[in-house]
Write a structure and sequence with these properties.
mainly alpha
Length: 125
């Protein structure tokens, strides 16, 4: 083999390697650019979600305050506890019961919802 042929082969090999490396560099730089844009998009979405979560928490706190105020406004007034009834003697209770059975109270007149039905006689036919 001649020295010039060897130089041509080595030169073409170096040129091929250089072109291949350039092609791989361009291909990888495009992928890196796409991945970088994707990363920026994800970071932007994360920040937006963080802001939305913060707003939602503020809204929840506001609603909780309003509910608490409504509960305070609607809270029923405390009722006084009734005084305990004195214990009644069983003999006295039996006497009152017997008197109520012997002397029943008069029935109160209730208004009638409908008038009594009146049967009318028919005239001669």
């Amino acid at each position: 083999m001649d020295n010039s042929q060897t130089m041509q082969m080595v030169g073409s090999l170096l040129l091929g390697l250089l072109l291949g490396a350039g092609a791989v560099f361009i291909w990888l730089s495009r992928r890196m650019k796409l991945e970088h844009e994707r990363l920026l998009h994800v970071e932007h979405a994360r920040q937006q979600m963080s802001q939305q979560v913060t707003q939602a928490r503020k809204q929840v706190e506001q609603l909780q305050r309003e509910c608490h105020e409504l509960r305070l406004a609607v809270r029923p007034a405390p009722r006084p506890t009734p005084a305990p009834q004195p214990i009644q003697d069983p003999a006295e209770a039996a006497r009152l019961y017997a008197e109520s059975k012997l002397n029943p109270q008069a029935a109160t007149e209730r208004p009638q919802a409908f008038k009594d039905t009146v049967v009318l006689k028919r005239g001669p036919e």
